[in-house]
């Protein structure tokens, strides 16, 4: 029984379509009015989009119903599903807390509401009857001004019991004009002792080498092996891990063919760059983490040894995994102590 670590999952995209449908039927029927039956809604919710922007637009719909009151409802179901159907032992959940605060409030009032959101998410994910170790990654966002993004970093630093790192989200094609600003924000985060990841090199328009030195992990990063493989040795030297989310690139239109990922894995393995396989938006895609692994294997994109290497890399690069070893080794020690496996 392999237990998985999920390093890249958005709260907004983590709600599976059936649960969202039931929620809308009960509380926001206007969202289901265009669909005679559930199947039509599921098709709409999970279908591939033409661009990353179009894809990210869907998050807005879910964000609007994830409020301080409703978050425990969604998170309880998320944790239950992740334990029962995904064999997760570890989960980093990421989102932008500001976008879960009431829209009618002023910016400073909304900033003041963020701590409660983080606490609600933290308590809800820890209260469920599942032995999954969880932590949060707070996302700065390209739609938000500097003051809000800086407040998100401050909050992350103030709540280490719930938060392990910061990220930047909202589309990597929007960094250009504000690149210095985002670099300064990451410098600030590192100065506070925070861990860092960031959506970068996801699309050909999101290639900003200037940001790389500030990231411990790279959200997606697939354009590095595809378009800029000369950067890989530096990544390997810095022990920077790519968070590769295979289904995303088809849903966003970033890749036309999933087989293109074969080059990503080959070049990273050759250069000694670790890859953690992740879902990004397991609900939105209706694809759970074990199937991301299995799909890559059956499509002949990775081999079994590479699959195992990625599973182990995910635990090594997890920001808040508290144990020295991944759970497989812990389980072996319990169930078959005569089997000693080295993961180093
Ligand atoms: Zn993402």
- Share of residues in strands: 5-15%
Distance between the termini: 20 Å
Ligand list: zinc ion
CATH superfamily: Metal-dependent hydrolases
Find the count of extended strands (DSSP E, 2+ residues). Answer: 8
Q: Work out the helicity level.
A: 40-55%
The number of domains is: 1
Cα-based radius of gyration, to the nearest Å: 19 Å
DSSP helical segment count: 15
**Gross morphology:** globular
Q: Which structural category fits the helices and strands?
A: alpha/beta
Mean pLDDT: 93
Q: Might you state the CATH topology name?
A: TIM Barrel
CATH class (first level) name: Alpha Beta
Low-confidence stretches: none
Order of helices and strands: EHHHHEHEHEHEEHHEHHEHHHH
* Physical arrangement of strands within the biggest beta sheet: 1-2-3-4-5-6-7-8
Oligomer: single chain
Largest sheet: 8 strands, parallel
Q: What's the architecture in CATH terms? A: Alpha-Beta Barrel
Enzyme class: hydrolase
Domain Adenosine deaminase: 5-320
Keywords: Hydrolase, Metal-binding, Zinc
Family: Belongs to the metallo-dependent hydrolases superfamily. Adenosine and AMP deaminases family.
């Amino acid at each position: 029984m392999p237990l998985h670590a999920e390093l890249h999952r958005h709260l907004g995209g983590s709600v599976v379509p059936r649960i969202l449908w039931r929620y809308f039927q009960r509380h926001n029927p206007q969202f289901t009015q265009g669909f005679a039956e559930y199947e039509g809604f599921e098709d709409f919710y999970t279908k591939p989009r033409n661009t990353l922007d179009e894809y990210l637009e869907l998050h807005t719909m879910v964000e609007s119903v994830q409020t301080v009151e409703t978050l425990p409802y969604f998170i309880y179901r998320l944790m239950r599903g992740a334990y029962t159907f995904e064999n997760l032992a570890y989960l980093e959940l990421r989102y932008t807390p500001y976008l879960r605060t009431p829209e009618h409030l002023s910016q400073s009032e909304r900033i003041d509401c963020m701590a409660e959101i983080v606490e609600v998410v933290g308590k809800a994910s820890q209260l469920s009857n599942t032995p999954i170790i969880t932590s949060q990654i707070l996302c700065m966002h390209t739609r938000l001004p500097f003051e809000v993004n800086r407040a998100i970093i401050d909050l992350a630093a103030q709540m280490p019991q719930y938060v392990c790192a910061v990220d930047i989200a909202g589309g990597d094609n929007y960094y250009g004009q504000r690149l210095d600003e985002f670099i300064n924000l990451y410098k600030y985060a590192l100065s506070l002792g925070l861990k860092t990841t960031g959506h970068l090199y996801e699309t050909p328009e999101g290639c900003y080498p200037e940001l790389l030195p500030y990231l411990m992990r790279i959200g997606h990063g697939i354009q590095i092996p595809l378009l800029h493989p000369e950067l890989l040795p530096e990544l390997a030297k810095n022990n920077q891990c790519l968070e590769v989310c295979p289904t995303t690139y088809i849903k966003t239109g970033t890749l036309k063919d999933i087989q293109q990922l074969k080059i990503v894995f080959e070049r990273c393995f050759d250069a000694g760059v670790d890859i953690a396989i992740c879902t990004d938006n397991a609900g939105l895609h209706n694809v759970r983490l074990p199937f991301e692994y299995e799909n890559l294997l059956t499509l002949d994109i990775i081999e079994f040894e590479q699959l195992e290497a990625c599973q182990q890399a995910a635990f090594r690069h997890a920001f808040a995994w508290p144990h020295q070893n991944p759970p497989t080794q812990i389980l072996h020690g319990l169930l078959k102590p005569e089997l000693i496996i080295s993961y180093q």
